[in-house]
Amino acid sequence: MKLRELAHSRTGDKGNTLNISVICYDAKHYEHLRAVLTSERVKTHLGEVVRGEVVRYELPGIAAFNFVLGHALGGGVTRSLALDAHGKSLSSALMGLEVEAPA
User: Fold this and answer.
1) Prediction pTM value
2) pLDDT digits (tens, 9 = 90+) for 8-27
3) Rounded to whole angstroms, what are the CA distances from 55 to 19, 31, 38, 47?
4) Of 29, 44, 79, 98, which one has the greatest count of Cβ atoms within 10 A?
5) Is residue 22 within 8 Å of 64, Cβ to Cβ?
6) pLDDT in tens, 30-49
């Protein structure tokens, strides 16, 4: 199943760093996503777009995660000629990740 079936997302940027939040639609899926949605898996899924470290912050109180992606915006908004300088489309790309269905 696609991650978008269990969660939604928002992004933000600061310089060449992007953060992508993943928010569970239903809190009962938090532990499942905690197990399957690792920093390594996010970095692998987004491929060469993310050239730096991916750090996952867990927010169990609101059934969400915040992923901070280093060197992910081609130099940053003011330094990149990329069409998506703010990285907004990367949340859609992440939502397309195939994840195991919860039990």
Assistant:
1) 0.80
2) 999 887 878 889 999 999 99
3) 9, 18, 9, 15
4) 29
5) yes
6) 999 999 999 999 999 998 88
**Edge-to-edge strand list for the sheet holding 54-59:** 7-14, 17-24, 64-69, 54-59
Task: Give me the domains of the chain, ranges plus CATH numbers.
Answer: 3-95 (3.30.70)
Q: Quick: pLDDT tens for 41-96.
A: 999 999 888 999 999 999 999 999 999 999 887 765 654 445 444 455 677 778 78
User: What is the token pair recorded at 43?
Assistant: 């970095």
Strands 17-24 and 7-14: antiparallel
Continuous segment of H or E residues that includes residue 42: helix 39-46
Residue with tokens 């915006």: 73
Residue pair 17/35 in contact (Cβ under 8 Å)? The answer is no
